[in-house]
Amino acid sequence: MAKKIWTIVVGCLCLQLLYGAEVKDSILQLNLDEVVVQGRRSIYVMRIDKRVFNVGTDLMSTSGSVSDLMHNIPSVQVDVEGNVSLRGSESVNILIDGKPSALMNTRTRADALRQIPASEIERIEIITNPSAQYKPDGVSGIINLVILICSLARFFSGQ
């Protein structure tokens, strides 16, 4: 009985050695000189507290103004006169790099949005439920225009 068990164990070990032997690859290997990987950001990014519209991926960013860009953003409406509304309400704050600007008061907002070129904007952030950080008294939301870092010196200058 012990002899049969030893025969079976030795036979299994021999079979394992046979099946475990390496087989030479028949696939031809080719070395590449250089590989270029290109990626793009998605147009819309949903975050917990805001929606981000990446301007660089939109065709309107090469020509046109910020007002033209806002036509393509969901829940943002720009009428013929240039008035901006967010989800149907015109009580929206527009910030530049997260800070209030005198350009964006309700009287001159439409003209300012037509004058800022779309190529100077990196992204537009839509905050529909603003926190206390932005003092959201009676405001339906906030639109934050993030300016390209390289264009800050030549576009917005002052003392």
From TrEMBL:
This is TonB-dependent receptor plug domain-containing protein. It is a multi-pass membrane protein. Keywords: Cell outer membrane, Membrane, Receptor, Signal, Transmembrane, Transmembrane beta strand, Transport. Belongs to the TonB-dependent receptor family. GO terms for molecular function: siderophore uptake transmembrane transporter activity. It is found in: Cell outer membrane. The keyword Transmembrane helix does not apply. Pfam families: Plug. Residues 63-142 form the TonB-dependent receptor plug domain. It comes from the Bacteria. One of its GO terms (cellular component) is cell outer membrane. The keyword Repressor does not apply. It comes from Candidatus Bacteroides merdigallinarum. GO terms for biological process: siderophore transmembrane transport. InterPro entries: Plug_dom, Plug_dom_sf, TonB-dep_rcpt-like.
